[in-house]
Design brief:
By secondary structure, the protein is an alpha/beta fold. It is about 40% helix and about 15% strand. It has eleven helices and eleven strands. Strands 9-8-7-6-5-2-1-11-10 form a nine-stranded parallel sheet. Strand 5, helix 4 and strand 6 form a beta-alpha-beta unit. Helix 10 packs parallel to helix 11. It is globular, with a radius of gyration of 20 Å. The model has no long low-confidence stretch (mean pLDDT about 95).
């Protein structure tokens, strides 16, 4: 069942969350404990992130360094299948431009189709850590829209080289990212919105926002979308603050602002526990206001925030 149907079949605002594949060699136990903790809130679906490989350097001595590529969080397809089989909860693996060739993407699509996984979140992905700006992988893509075109062709029964798929499988449904406070590389909100609009024109069935703390930014995005005839669901992405270090890291990394009332409360915090308490209270009120505006679903980012999300969910669902 596609994500639109999953969230619309709920009598109230749907609940979903995102998880990361475990670090290479650490096992899947921690991930399963996260899902166990949040499964009681009947998630409509679970997103699984995808991570590109990156360069790592090994000191060989005598001033020599060896450079090699390492994917620290492999296994998105396998993790998606394991979750769906163990919990019978629909999964949404992320599909990226960043770090993947067109052929590698095609193999991922084939694997997911064989596994009966029909929902995707299609993203450009972050730049490589060693790059000053986003650089497409050779024989890869620069923009989400290009990746969408490959998926659309696959759905229509064509491989990336143009040859026909002899036995086409069930087509994929997909969503894309959108940004209440614009993507970091966008020149302004106008150009950022036009990219989102184009992604919807190419077939995106819904948008999921980057995390934000100012509901007015989200509501302005929805209002602009509706005025422009973009009528797909726009699902708010929420991440409760949990640590003092996030007070500087989150605005810098995710390019979002803290509203003044939140900033005043955060400035009083001297410990991680104090930040966590403020983060829970803010997210609860933020979610209640969003629900009052009739959002179809709320999507939670779980990294370092599972306990907080469980408490928030208890209070709003």
């Amino acid at each position: 069942m596609n994500i639109i149907d999953l969230i619309h079949q709920k009598d109230s605002t749907a609940f979903s969350f995102e998880v990361l594949p475990p670090l290479k060699g650490t096992g899947i136990g921690g991930l399963l404990r996260t899902i166990d903790r949040l499964a009681e809130f009947a998630p409509a679906y679970i997103n699984i992130t995808t991570h590109r490989s990156e360069y790592v350097y090994t000191d060989l001595g005598d001033g020599l360094m060896q450079r090699s590529r390492l994917r620290r969080r492999p296994g998105t397809v396998a993790v998606a299948a394991a979750i769906q089989n163990a919990y019978h909860i629909p999964v949404v693996p992320h599909i990226l431009c960043s770090g993947f060739t067109r052929e590698e993407t095609e193999y991922v699509l084939l694997d997911l189709q064989f596994l009966g996984i029909e929902n995707l979140l299609v993203l450009r992905g972050d730049k490589a850590k060693e790059d000053a700006k986003f650089t497409p992988t050779p024989d890869g893509y620069s923009h989400t829209t290009e990746l969408q075109e490959q998926i659309n062709a696959f759905n229509e029964g064509r491989f990336v080289d143009g040859s026909p798929i002899k036995v086409p499988g069930k087509p994929f449904h997909y969503g894309v990212a959108c940004y209440p406070e614009k993507h970091e590389e966008a020149l302004n909100l106008e150009t950022d919105f036009q990219w989102f609009k184009r992604k919807v024109e190419l077939g995106a069935e819904y948008g999921v926002t980057q995390l934000f703390y100012d509901n007015q930014a989200y509501l302005r995005l929805v209002e602009r979308a509706r005025a422009e005839g973009v009528n797909v669901p726009i699902i708010p992405g929420i991440k409760p603050l949990t640590k003092l270090s996030q007070l500087t890291m989150v605005p810098k990394t995710f390019h979002c602002d803290f509203p003044e009332p939140l900033a005043k409360e955060l400035l009083k915090c001297q410990t991680d526990e104090a930040v966590k308490a403020v983060g829970i209270e803010w997210a609860v009120e933020q979610c209640r206001e969003l629900m009052a505006h009739g959002v179809p679903s709320i999507h939670f980012y779980t990294v370092s925030a599972v306990d907080s999300i469980a408490e928030i969910a208890r209070r709003i669902y």
